[in-house]
Structure formats: structure tokens, C-alpha cells
Design brief:
heterotrimer, A mainly alpha (329), B alpha+beta (472), C alpha/beta (318), B: 472 residues, alpha+beta, 4-stranded antiparallel beta sheet, 3-stranded mixed beta sheet, 13 helices, 53% helix, C: 318 residues, alpha/beta, Rossmann fold, 2 domains, binds adenosine-5'-triphosphate, binds magnesium ion
Chain lengths: 329, 472, 318
Amino acid sequence: MDLLAILSNSVRGAFGPEAAIYALAAIGLNIHFGYTGLLNFGQVGFMLVGAYGTAVPVVAWGWPLWAGVLVGVLCAVLLALLLGFPTLRLRGDYLAIATIAAAEVLRYLYRSSWAEPLTGGVFGLKQFAGGFYAFNPYSGPLDLGWLTFSPRALWVMTVGWGAAFLAAGLVALLIHSPWGRVLRSVREDEQAARSLGKNVFAYKMQSLVLGGVMGALAGALIGINSQALNPDSFMPIITFYLWTIMILGGASRVLAPIVGSVVFWFLLTFLDSALRQAIGTGLVPASVLVASDIGAVRFAAVGLGLMLLMMFRPAGLMGDQKELRLDVR
Amino acid sequence: MLARLVGLLAALTIALSWGAVAVAAPGAGPVTGAGDTAPVTTASMLPLQQTEAPDDAEETQQPEEPAELLRGTLRGPDRQPLSGLTITVTRDGEEVGSTVTDDQGQWEVGLPGPGTYAVGYDPAELPEGVVPREEGGEQLQGVVVRPGAAQGVIFQLAGDGEGEGVPGGGSGAGAAGPTLLSKVAQLLVEGIKFGAIIAITSVGLSLVFGTTRLINFAHGEFVTIGAVVAFFASTGGPLPLVLGAVVAIAFAAALAGGLELSVWRPMRRRSTGLIQMFIVAIGLSLVLRHLVLVVFGSRRRQYDEFTLQPAWDLGLVRITPRDLVITVLAFLVMVLVAVMLQRTRTGKAMRAVNDNQDLARASGIDVERVVMVVWLVGGGLAGLGGVLYGLTQAIYPEMGFTLLLLMFAGVILGGIGSAYGAMIGSLAIGVISQLSTLWFPASLQFMWALLAMILVLLFRPQGILGRRERIG
Amino acid sequence: MSADQATPREEPEDLVHQRAELVEEEARLQHEAPSEGASRAARALADVAAEPGVPKPDPILVVEDLTRSFGGVKAVQVDHVEVQRGTITAVIGPNGAGKSTFFNLVTGFDRPDSGRWRFDGADITGRPAYRIAGSGMVRTFQLTKALMRLTTLENVMLGATGQRGERLLTAPLRFLWRGQEDQVRQRADALLERFRLTHMRDEFAGTMSGGQRKLLEMARALMVRPSLVMLDEPMAGVNPALTQSLLGHIQGLRDEGTTVVLVEHDMDVIMAISDWIVVMAEGRVIAEGRPDDIRRNKAVIDAYLGTRRELKEDDGEH
Ligand SMILES: Nc1ncnc2c1ncn2[C@@H]1O[C@H](COP(=O)(O)OP(=O)(O)OP(=O)(O)O)[C@@H](O)[C@H]1O
Ligand SMILES: [Mg+2]
């Protein structure tokens, strides 16, 4: 086993573009669940509309990429409004089911033959982010000897992490304002907030829109990073990744999604490379696992991690156990 | 704390250890004692690239040796992939392999070597309104495969009526093209069958919610596991499918009960929050689903019994004996559940706990025991539903999750917390999703079901049979 | 849930006595030297007949034909009831009489099957709860709703209305609302002081005891600066010494011109501080009147007071 290779892979995973993108989407989710108590299990739907909103105008109408990103954000706002109006009045668990269903509805829709002229249906869209890479300021790779990042990855990482930290900064400002106080009171007890004259519905909607826009930006970055989009890469499991990241970091902590994402991707890539090596070197015999099973094992590990976290350390890495014990719901 | 962890791991190893056995089986070639055709089918299935590997391209790399194979993508006239069709490859009249198209319409069959093959599908499996473009186009003869080649095969399909000169060919025995009435009737039959299957799986979901307030996100996995256990017991093992189904029901029930003991009961004891339990259920569903994926592979497979049955023509509708039996069986199970809830002590206790847990406890009902029975019944029914769904469609690791969303739709449509509501809602969901194909692409049929659920949430959140939500 | 309600019954005997003494003291003081607000209220209600549904000279809340049933149970069936401005009006009645449901309905937390109601002259039938609260009718809950993972101070500050920083667009721009926030904090601190919660200021509200939560909820409601405050059993679970100062606060509110409607089961408290009493049973208003009228009302004694030993002795009737 080549431990150094595994470690360097894991570090790459921990700070690579995916980690940044997932951190950004998880910050949005943290606004929803961590601060407002909304059980949004359809965050991937926001990412989907953000990604396609960005790509479609570029591919179909030849718009510049930045205009595409704007369209993606608007799509997310629209989705939040459409989704929020019927569901935000419902009890929390209904919201969970409605959002996960809505995200699936969107995926079915985007891959259908109806949408094919715009979205490319099951074939997806490719090569639309040239406008982004044209501005790449990095000319050479970052080479630390045991770890290299291509200029392309560096550029996505810069923008991705930059966006994530900006978003976290915005959340910090918002949460420590009276607006954030109302948001947190909605999380604790809607009726109490209502009895003090707060328009709970409006606050939930604002939260849904704001977090959804962050999801959409993350979606746009997914498209930009891979230069290829396919509706089927926006499966519900992405939302579960985000939940794991948020809870791993510690829900309702400003920096938790960032820390959570780094740790999550480190562990995930570590597991992945270690397994790959173990299988490659015959340490794990082929009768037990083959390389094509690694993806499945990885998902199972995420599930197990989510379960154990929730059962034994629901406050995550940064959360306050004392605070969590007060959560009697 | 430690004990709980051990319990949890034990529950998971049930699945794992059974998995390890099963992994060895198909890899080791023909299973001893099995019939002579079944293992060939199983063994010849090469791992296709995973259809879901959402976030990285690495997953798609295939480490397999170069071998001859036939592959293709089946698309309807509307360019929509056609999934769940059985593709059979023969050489000199002997079957060398078969497979089922996945949800991208893709299929792939490994071959014993280069040569000339015939490939075909069963036109009866085509969706309503789709026929081979040319008469007899469902069978392609003389497909030449060179050494090491992956030969592509294209089946041409046309919409019913637009095909050039297909006098009565392919679309069924009826001499005249199907009228709207008979189309609707046919889809209703399909919808009721599908809805009945959803109904028996969703009863457990609804009962578990009613008695414990847990939204069991892992309920779909009982469905998958039921289907898969039956597959390994019958198609991949010694039993006839009927007995395999019994084993599957027992296994799913035992798994549900084991999880109640090792995960849910301890969490309730600690009065864990409902949201927390819900998230644990999501984690559990991920674990179970992907263990199945490791064990079973990502391919869609089918039981080797009751396939390719000729349909009975009942005038307005056509139905295979298999589907008729499945529908009747599912309704029978629903009636049994209703009788149990109305007549038996346990059933009455279930309803009492459902209505008011504290009151039930105070009036001497052993709530924990009732909850346990609910899990066993719900898990077993889900397992049975999995076998039935596997029979009518295909067996694949995502099947439970796909069905889960439809179950939610059914439960919410019918009224959350009401077992009867769950049944009625599920039937409605089945019919909606089938009827939608009358006007819309078949690949969107689940979308309409989910949209129906969202609409219900909008206008009547308590569902058809539910009570108005209590406030304050 | 039920823990909150259970607390008063578990009070040790001597505490109950202590409380009774304090309340008596309060009543005596009242009798000897009624506060300005009390005498104003007494004057205003002087000519009002003691019968259910009677009109008041200056009603702040008027309720008509209000009904709400749960399944077969008619929880509320109020034909007509008015609340006089600037008074302490008590709503009493046996358990399950529909008092809390009545509160829920008029404050918009539950939807009635029928009925209309006016607040401060404006028809507010069917308005959402937050707008009713915003227009000056604020309620507390029988089962307290502390915002657990907010500090005590934050709980109270939340009550302030018209906060500029509560808008999404201005929230990130601290300089726009910092001054107002300081004022709100000062007011909240003063309220905490008044309700003896200052030592809990920076603790999570979730760590509070049941009685402390009652106090917190009242402080939070007052932070809204309501013109009508509806208190659902504000004294349940609060210790005797504090009960008296709570009574003082409630009277103080009335004297400042706030109308108070409160539900309370402790008859001594009711008789000591209320200007007007509305008696409910099985969803209906069965009697209305000044404390003295109620004490003598046959229907009330049958339905409710008859079970109270002290009152029977007091009146020597029955
Ligand atoms: N959400 C609800 N669902 C069903 N029935 C309800 C509900 N809320 C109240 N009820 C019923 O309405 C009636 C009135 O209840 P309410 O809580 O208003 O009584 P109350 O006068 O406040 O009693 P208490 O003095 O015990 O607080 C009771 O019979 C109760 O069972
Ligand atoms: Mg009450």
C-alpha cells in the first residue's frame, strides 16, 4: 500500500473543487435547516436548476456565461417560490417529503423528451463554460511535490472556496442581526414567533430563497467544473451528502459546512483510494469486493456515517452538545 | 451505548453475511443443483457501468477483460429510452444470454465468443402504442460479431399507426388498432396492478408512522431486499419462486424487526427527536441500498419463472395470468390487513396506538409489542411487494427508492397515519402514473404521481381520509 | 408538556399558605386604596349589568357568534362577549371549558367554524396571527413556548416591533440598526429586571424552569407593547413571592392603560385583581360580572365555584 499516494489523494479531495462546491451548497442547507429548521431534502433540485440555468442560455442562445449564472440564480428563486408556497405552511416532515419529491420531479422533467431541445435530455449539455476558463489567471500548476493541482482546478477552487467563504461571511452577518434572531425563533417555535407579530411564512420563504440561491450557485459551479451536465448526476443522494456534511460540521454553526465538507471529502477520498489500493494489491480479494463496487461501498459508508453521527454525536464537530440537548423536538 | 452499537452492527451484518454468500454464488458459475438454463443467464451478465455514479467519472471505468458482446440502446419513437424490456440473444436457436434494458434503455449481453447471433425482444413488452417499425423487426438475424468486438445493435421502433404497413402486427391480437376506450381500460388495469403493489408496501410505512411517528425512509429497502432475497433463493438458488417469496417475506420481516430492536427502540427509549430519527432512517436506507448494490450489482435482472407469458385477451383488455394473479393477490393481502386491523386484538391495539399512544399505554396496551408487530407486518408486506414488483418490472437496487417516493405519494394522498388511506392513495397513484402515459411520455409517469402528491399537499394536506390537522 | 401544569399541585403546603397570605394582603391593599386604574375601571363598569353578553361602554374586543368544534365536541360557542378597554378581565371556568380555544381563535392561532370579532374598532376576523399580534393584541400560551436555543435576552428582544434589522436587506448593514438594537436591549434588560430574570440573561431559555418560562413569556409579550394582552394561566407554576409581584405587574399594566385578559384557576387571585369576570363552561359564556356578582351567582357556583371550599365558607351560602 502506498500511504503517501492515498494521503495526497485525500488532501486533494479535501480541498479540491468538489469540496468547495459542496461546502457552498451545504451553507445554503444550513440556512434552511440549521437556522430556520426547514427540513429541505431537495437541495439538489436547487443545484439542478442552477446548473441548467447557467448552461442552457449559453448553449441554446449563445448568451455569455455570467448571464447564464444570473439565469440560474433566478431559476432558484422561482423554484423556492413555487416550492415554498404550497409546502412552507406544512408541518416539517411533510416539507421533507415534498422537497425530495420536487427535486425528483425536476430531474424527470429535465431529462424528458419535452425538455430535450433545451437541456439535451438524457444526453445532457457539454462545453459551455469556456467563458469561465478564459479568465483563468493561473498559468502553471501548483506543485507541492506530493500533490499537484492543475491550473484549471486551481481556478475552480479559487472561485469555489471564495464563494463559500463569502457565503459564510454573509450568513454570519445575517445570523447575528435581528433578522437572524427571528429566523432562529422560527426554528425553535413558529407559534411563539407568530405570537410576537413575526410573519413566519415570509421569513421561511426568505430563508428558502437565500439557501436555494446558494445551492444554485453551487450547481452552476458543478457544471462549470465538469463542463458537462446530465440530469442524472443530480440524484437525491447529493442532498444526503449535503446533510451529512452539514451535520458532520455541526448544524447552525457558520463555518460548519466548510469544515464539514473538508473533513467529509478527506474521509471519502481516503476510503476510496485505500479501497482501490487494497483491491489492486489483492489485499481485499476479488471475491469480496471488486473495483466497480467501490462507489457503492462509499455510499454505504456515507449512510453509516450519517446514522452514527446522528445517533451518537448529533452536534457534529463544531456544535455545542449542551445546546443540542435543549432540542426536545 | 456500546451495546447499542453492537446491536446495530449485528443488524447490518445480517445483510452483509448473507451478501457475502451471494457474492460468491454468481461469480462461481453455475450454482449446483439449479436448473440448467438459469445459471447461464446469471453468469453471463457482465457488470454494466453503473447507471448512477453521480459525481465522478472514475466510477465508470470497467476493469473487465475484453470479450465479445452485443449492446444497444432501445428508444421509442419519441427518443425516450425504453426500460425493462427483455433482450434475448440466441445462436443456432439456443439461448446464450438475455438481459433487461436499464432505465436509460441500454442493454448489453456478453457472448461466449465471436460468431453469428440472433437478437430479439418480446414485442408484447413494448409500451402501449409502440411497435417495431417493420413487421418482424423485433428479431434480428445474422448479427455478425468479430473477435473482441462490442457489436452495436439497433432496433427500429415506430409509433403505432405511423409505422409503414404494419397490418395488425406487433400491437397485439386485436385486428383493429386499439380504441381510446380499450387503451384507457388497459392502462387502468396496469395502474390498478401497480397501485395494488404500492399499496401493500405502503401499509407498513403508514402503520410505522402511525405508531411511532417515524418516517421510515428505509422502508423502500425492505422492498428491494425482499425482491433480491427471492431472486437469490429462486432464480439463483434451489427454490421455486413461490417459496423464494416466502423466504423473502420472512427475511424482510426479520430485518425490520431486527432494526426495530437494535436501532429504533433504543432511540425511542432515549426519546430521540423525530427529525434525528428521520435522518438516521435516511442513513440506514443508504447503507442498505448500497450493500444490495455490492451484492446484487447494478444490473436490472428478472426472475426466471413466469416470464414471457402469453396474455389473455379479455376483449377490452389483455392481461397475463401472472399479472392477474399478482393483482388478485395484492388485493387479497389488503383485505387481510383490513380484517386484521378491524377484527384481531393486535389490529385493534394498532389502531389504538395509532390514535393516541399515551391513552393506549394507559389502558394497558403493550405499546412496544404492538410496534414490534407493526414492523414485522410492515417489513414482510414490503418484502412481498418487492417480489411482486420484481415480477412485473425488474429487480434492481434502486427499485425500493423509486417505489418509496410513490409510497409517500400514496400515503399523503390517502391521508397520513391512516392505513386505509395509504391503500386507497397508493391505488390512485398507480392509476395516475399509468394513465398519464396516455398523453405524456412514459418516462414521466412517476413525475405525475409526485406532482399529484404536491398538489394534494397544497389543497388538502390531510389527504383523502385524513383528519384536519390539530393546531396549538 | 403536562409537567408545567402539574407543578402548582406539587407545591408544598406551607408555600400555598404563604401564597394565600400574600394574595390576601394584596386584596386588602386593593380594598383600602384601589389604584387609579382600578377605580377608573370600576367607574367605567359601574352601570354594566352582570349578565352574559352584556355590551360595555368602550369595548376594545367584541366577539360575535364564535364557534369551534373538534369532532363532536363543541369547544367554543360564544354568542357575544365584549372586553372593556383598560380593565383586567378574567376568564374562568372548569378544565375543558374552552378558554384556551377561545384565546386561540381570537388571536388567529386557530380558525373558527363561524364568527366575527373586532379589535380596537377594526374587523380582524380571519386575519393571520402575526398581524393580529402586530396590531396590538398579544397572547401568551398555557403551555409555555420558550425559544429554547435563544438566550433569555434574545427571547425578550425578539418581542420588539418595528425593528429595522429584521428586514433581510438591511440586516447585513449593521450601522443601520445598531442604535435601535441598543434601545431594544435596554428595554429588554429593564423587563428582565422587572421579572427577576436578570441572572438568566445570557443563558439559553431552554435551561429555565417551568415557572421562569412563564415569566419570560410574559416579559416577551410585554416587549411588543400591546394594547391588549391575553395571558393564559400566567401564574401557574410561579412561586408565591413572585406571584404577588406578578399581580402587581398586571395591575401596573392596567394602570398604564393596557387591557389585560387572563385565564386563571386560582380564585383568590381572580377575586383580588380582576375588574370584570367572564365565566365559561362547556364552550359558552354562562355568566359575567364584577367579582362580587360572580361570587353570588348561582349558576357559577353550580358549574365551577361550588367545588371550592374557601368560597363556600366565605359566602355562607349553599
Ligand atoms: N386541538 C384539539 N383537538 C381536539 N380537541 C381539542 C383541541 N383543543 C381543545 N380541544 C377540546 O376542546 C375543549 C376545550 O379545550 P380548552 O383547551 O379550550 O379548555 P380550557 O378551558 O383551556 O381548559 P384548561 O382550564 O384545562 O386549560 C376540550 O374539551 C378539549 O378536549
Ligand atoms: Mg387552557
